[in-house]
Design a protein that fits this description.
Distance between the termini: 30 Å
Number of strands: 4
Radius of gyration: 16 Å
Shape: globular
Helix content: under 10%
Strand content: 25-35%
Structural class: mainly beta
Order of helices and strands: EEEE
Length: 84
């Protein structure tokens, strides 16, 4: 994910690392640090920190206006795969 214009700067590039149950850790490509909500009361201060398993570093991506749900979606059924 690129946060600003396409300048190919690693400072603007972020990797989403799946953490299970619909949650992600967001890592900066340049610093290798993770986004963390530092002011948990208001959620307004976000910093980059070493990775931890604290809830302040877990993120969920939602469409605008979507209701926050804490239950992961059902696993897909009827999937088929073949090797090539």
């Amino acid at each position: 994910m690129i946060a600003f214009g396409p300048s190919n700067s690693s400072v603007q590039q972020w990797a989403l690392e799946y953490d299970g149950d619909g949650w992600f850790h967001i890592r900066n490509k340049f610093s290798a640090l993770y986004l963390e909500v530092a002011d948990k009361a208001t959620g307004t201060l976000v910093l980059q920190q070493e990775r931890s398993d604290d809830a302040s570093q877990r993120w969920r991506l939602l469409p605008k206006g979507a209701t926050l749900e804490f239950d992961a979606p059902d696993s897909p059924t009827g999937l088929k795969a073949e090797s090539r």
